[in-house]
Amino acid sequence: MTTTFVLRVLLGVTLGATLCGHCSCDEQPAGRSQGAEVNEDAQLKLRDDYVKALEDRISRLERVLDGSRSQGGGLHGRSDPSPELESRARIQPISRDVLPHAHTTTRLASPTHGQALAQNRVESVRERDGAFTEEGAGSNGQEAAIWRRARNAVRDSSATLGQGSELSSAGSKVRQAGSSEAYDVRIMTLEASMQRLDLMNVTSIANDIERIKVEIGNTFDAGDTAWVMVCTSLVLLMTIPGLALFYGGLVRVQNVLSTVMQSFSIACLITVEWMMVGYSLSFTKGNVIFGDSSRFWLRGLNMTSRHPLMPTVPEPIFCMFQLTFAIITPALICGSFADRLKFGPMLVFMGLWHLVVYCPLSHAMWTENGFLHRAHVLDFAGGNVVHVAAGFSGLVCSIVVGKRANFGRENFHPHNILISVLGAALLWVGWMGFNGGTAGRAGAQAALACLNSQISAATGSLSWMTTEWLIRKRPSVLGIISGALAGLVCITPGAGYVDTTGAFVSGLLAGPTCFAACQLKHIFKFDDALDAFGIHGPAGVLGGILTGFFSKKSLTAGVFEGTAGVFEGNAMQLPLQLYGIAVSIGWSMLGTGILLKLIDLTLGLRVGIDDELLVHSRPPTSLFLPFSRLSLMDVEHLNVQHLVSRLPTFFLFLSLSLSLYL
To answer: Is the pLDDT of residue 400 over 90?
Structure first.
């Protein structure tokens, strides 16, 4: 790895500069002229001890860096350089052949000679390995800068050594000492070697190595990160204000604020719940149904951590992207019980539904050890997890909560279809982030997912409009925007797995299928107020089935090592898709039914008939009406004329109160 290589280069050049600086093979030893030749075995032992001391020093530095390396990568972060960089930076261990031959003796060389030998050793290491040089580093200027600093440090310290360092004096004592003084000489030699390493400013170089290690090991792709951040914003806009406007325009005028309030409050509630436990239960390892507790309260999530589903972006933005999915899923259900569910019990239900239904399904479908993922069920962006679960949960809600008063006798016209068109337009645009962001990177799959979404939405609008035109003899604005949503829902499970033909067929079939499904509430007498089930349930099921037919092995190469569809010869993919759909339907309906019954027994679900029909014995005209009893419907229908007539009395009361206080 990079750190080990740089430190070993420092060891190599240090040994070369030091030992070559006071040793020569082609001149007569100075010690022989004085008759004090050092024993060759003792000299070899000195060299071995010297090498061992240097290696111990390098090992200590490596351990320091390794200790900080273990903190840099996060849960899924890379702490080591890339394989290409590591292969370039590989160096052979320093062996005996870099040292002088055993039969030679040491002598003190001149400063110029020692400096030249040190430079030669640096150049020989560069030629032998080719790494961390200006030429070998290529475009990585940081690596080249580290090499230059190490080389310059060796040259500077070589000059200092030649001018008379402790190691030079130790070399003189080696020449003058016999084998009986080898121990003292070894101690002085080791001390001198440590001082030499200090002269090389190893700490500064090690800091540079650590900084580059962090940059290499934890670098995220800037383009991918920017793309996922944009998609996160788009998906959040789908709920607030997209879905709030879409549903708000479809209800009666007296329920606009309560409908918008539901979407907004769900966004706040699920965000807090996601931070506390939801993210950990959905996207950590855990078991086949739930994740573990490693990310409760988002512990361990930081700027350097990453998730294996999106390894090129920081984990915080992955967490936020998945949060937007968790927000919009329960908000979709509100369309089934509009106009008649209490606000407090609604919040309790949504909070529990997130934990009991959404978290298990998302974990089972998208994490590596989820049971639906192990079964090779394809769901690109949430056909089962989001739309099938929300649609069929809405069906249960409409049945358990019951029908609105006068359902079947009164025509509940949308109070402002223009607001719904604006909401549907925001949903359409946001769906590009919904499907395109699921690719996890700004690449070809994201581009294909966006294109497929656009094709399916447009085709779905035209097919719904045509169907309605043929049956009812005229198209409608509500029909064309509903068809667009049906096409978008249908392409969601296969947006990145099918080609444009699959997207066209998805939209073409989604329009008439969902149009027919929306008529079922009149046949079976259940009150799906805003067609949450009629659009999301059947379109999600149809999309999962069509994904089994049209998926391409070349497009699913990153999932299960490529999964072909029925049209490419893999007939077994269709039963797998049906299995995933059946599990999603059964789990969501069962969980929703149990939760609603428990809440109904404890808190109650329905608003009173007078509140639903806005039949009040006397309009709430008093300015001193307790705010704890003031509902959203009361606020919308305050009698302004009566309130104005009471203003003089109010100011008189206020004046008297101030007088008494003063």
So the answer is: yes
